[in-house]
Amino acid sequence: MMPANDTPLTEWPLSTLAGQSHSAPHSTGFASLVLRLRLALRRDPDPVKRGLVEQILTAAAESEQRLIDQAQRIAELEALSTTDELTGLPNRRAFESFMAKDLARAARDGHGGTLAFLDLDRFKAINDRHGHAAGDAVLCQLALRLQPAARTSDCLARLHGDEFVLAMPGATRDQAETRLSELATRVEKQPLRFGDALIPVGISYGLSTYDGSTDLPSLLRDCDRAMYLRKQVRRD
Fold this sequence. Notes:
alpha+beta; Alpha-Beta Plaits; 2 domains; 4-stranded antiparallel sheet; two-stranded antiparallel sheet; 8 helices; elongated
């Protein structure tokens, strides 16, 4: 309980102030306490005490703001550490974290999934002919086209360059093949635009199923190998 409004600030027990700061809601407790202290400060007859407490309140408010700013910066850095800056998709770190959890889940319940490794066809030729800005634009547009293929339980990520992965927990190989085949067909039917140029694109993909006994490096190697075999068939 707070002291009466006419009680000088300097006569408030420290236990009362501490109790007020902890009992108030987290989002408004500090601001509410500072407001009450400032109102009470005006009624204290000692100008020296008022000046001292005012300095303390100002320093406390500045410290609180620094903590808020620091928390926001930490959140921004955490987001950047798991987000691909170019496409906005999850990056390799986020993908590896997702797979670590899903492989652990698969080990617990016995249900695995399927991983797809996707690679743009002739991406180097796009960069050579239209420039790297065009290549970046193609990657961004491709990311947008890939997103509808990912369920909320999936993880679509960009690993590096023109390499993407789509982790599909609970999906069988046949189900994944159907989804990726339809996706590849849609991508090829719609050239991507960069300025006045229409750039035809194609994607090759490789699939590999996983369960609780699978390790991620081996899974990625299997998918990568399957993707290159498919790419070679397409070239031939």
